[in-house]
Amino acid sequence: MSTNFESLHDQFDREVASVSDAESLRALRDRWLGRKAGLVTDVRKQMGAVASEDRAAFGKAFNALQQHVEAGLDRVSAEIANRERDATIARETVDITLPGRAAPLGHRHPITILRQNIEDIFVRMGYSVEDGPEIETTFFNFDALNIPDGHPARESQDTMYVSEDLALRSQTSTVQIHAMQRRQPPLRVIAPGRVFRRDTPDATHNPMFFQVEGLNVAEGITLADLRGTCEEFVRQLFGADAPVRFRASYFPFVEPGCEFDYQCFVCKGTGCRVCKGSGWIEMGGAGMVHPHVLRTVGIDPERFSGFAFGFGIDRLAARQFDLDDIRLLFANDLRFLEQF
After folding, report:
1. 58 is in which domain, residue-wise?
2. Which of 35, 138, 231, 269 has the greatest count of CB atoms below 10 A from its CB?
3. How many beta carbons lie within 10 A of that of residue 271, not counting itself?
4. Which residues have a Cβ under 8 Å from the Cβ of 72 and sit 6 or more positions away?
5. Res. 238: pLDDT tops 90
6. 277 Cβ neighbours under 8 A, 6+ residues apart
7. Residue 274 clears pLDDT 80, i.e. is over it
8. Are residue 32 and residue 145 in the same domain, yes or no?
């Protein structure tokens, strides 16, 4: 026999001793027992060239080599499996004598915190909290609010339409229409909730944001009542030294109308990119309810008057929590949310 089986045994023993992990074991198994180029396979192919009188001895030596290789590979495979099992057990072992880990408690989102604070303030002022659908007909979203055909707010670049006559509400003013249809004056309600507009996201704008609508309808309501209510709300929310201002403005559903601003929370009134250099950030629109709106819901404007306002809760949250970008409120970043 020309094949040196003893040398092959020694070679295998040297190589198997260097195996340390499953990957090197697979490589060694392929090297020795591979079907096409394995060393044991190569020895088997030599059997046809062995003289007939030597075949019995060659076959016996070949079988011993093959069994030696397979046994060595199986032994190392078992050793590797045992090491991996022991490592897994050590890694996953739990000391049952240690105290358990407390599960982290969930908490309220900053928008929810502020919304509940707002509701509490107005409930103390005698208001009730109303809710309404987020998908509205054009009657509630525009017609009943005295927003005529052709008004820019009705265009698809401003309002998110679901169908020709249905849209995601662009303000919670729609809830005041539902409330006045169901209830007669005197009426004091607030309507917090989500609204939707086709705004480009930036530090003070978002396509979906939260708003609180307020409505007070009774005999003898004046613009002074509106101003006093808004100032008292800001005083209770931010403190007595929170600077605010009113500016004359136009909205189809109020007459006269105004906008209510608070001092920029970033620059403190000196002007910056967030407030666009003005030193002030718009909180929302307000004004005396337009007589046409009252007539639409069956309330006599000769007898009753009222005021309405709509504030952006997101911007109020930025003011209260000292945020420089309202998009943080919707990013779902736990590093931010866990601070509240």
Report:
1. 5-92
2. 138
3. 15
4. 12, 13, 16
5. no
6. 271
7. no
8. no
